UniProtKB/TrEMBL annotation:
Organism: Lysobacter yangpyeongensis
Keyword Cell cycle recorded: no
Alphabetical list of PROSITE patterns matching this protein: PFKB_KINASES_2
Keyword Cell division attached: no
Cofactor names: Mg(2+)
List of catalytic residues: 243
Domain Carbohydrate kinase PfkB: 7-285
Gene responsible for this protein: rbsK
Name by which UniProt lists this protein: Ribokinase
Stored Gene3D superfamilies: 3.40.1190.20
Family note: Belongs to the carbohydrate kinase pfkB family.
Enzyme type, top EC level: transferase
Catalytic activity: D-ribose + ATP = D-ribose 5-phosphate + ADP + H(+)
Amino acid sequence: MTSGNTVLVAGSANLDFVVRAPHIPAPGETVLGSDFSTFPGGKGANQAVACARAGGVRTRMLLALGNDAYALPLEHSLREAGVEAHIVRTGEPTGVAFICVSDEAENAITVAPGANSQLRPEHLPDLAGVTHLLLQLETPLDPVLAWAQAARAAGVRVVLNAAPAQALPQTLLESVDVLIANEGELAAVTGVEDDMAAAVARLGRVDVIVTLGARGSCAHTQGGWVLQPAFEVDAVDTTGAGDTYCGAFVAALAAGDTFAEAMRRAAAASALACTRMGAQASIPARAEVELMLAQGRELARDELRRYCEMSRGSSSLIP
């Protein structure tokens, strides 16, 4: 691990129950699946593992677990990745997620939060040495807001992954330095659909990254727009790819990379995560990310630019 700055991730941890099927079932449809496995998951835990394993930075995590067998693989996965876990034990069962992965590598996910719902504002650990706090929305909103405000007051940069999609109070947005969202999540946060520029403008001074799946990502920062095409891979499971992006991005910022450099590193890590099954199990090591950065092939930037221009009211800001 690189020395120096520390990332604190506060959020969810779930045990994922994953079934592969020919396609995602429609309402009322029964689909016969094939492979079944369990994997450590949860947006918070996935992002913490990505910070430590793919990003190679010192990583701590605040999470809640039950006193049950489902907690054990989650603790093991965090420990193996080198994450320092601050665990709140609750009377609720450990959170679980039920995931169907199609042959096209798409997924549908249902989460039972369990212990995650018991996290409270007062559970935030000491922020000494922490430079970046990474948050998501699989835990109650009140503690997320309190943690963001406490971090901002302590001079810690706050990064929020606005997932799962929901409207957010202005007080939370005002406490965030970087917002990471896909197109649906951005629309839920801002109330603006099909116009990326208008949605981003509504968020004010916050830096915004919009993840665009297999196309890549784009961002609006105080310096203007940044485009990052995806790396070409043969995808088998996209579960956890977005979380890998978030964790690798924040780790890169903590290690001193520029915003654009951090986006490229995150793109490489998330692409590699799509080539394996599972959430935390698919997150690559830092050495693999370095190899992808050196030898991997990015999709055409012009294609990403055209897509972003079609998703915006004005194309003049796209580089």
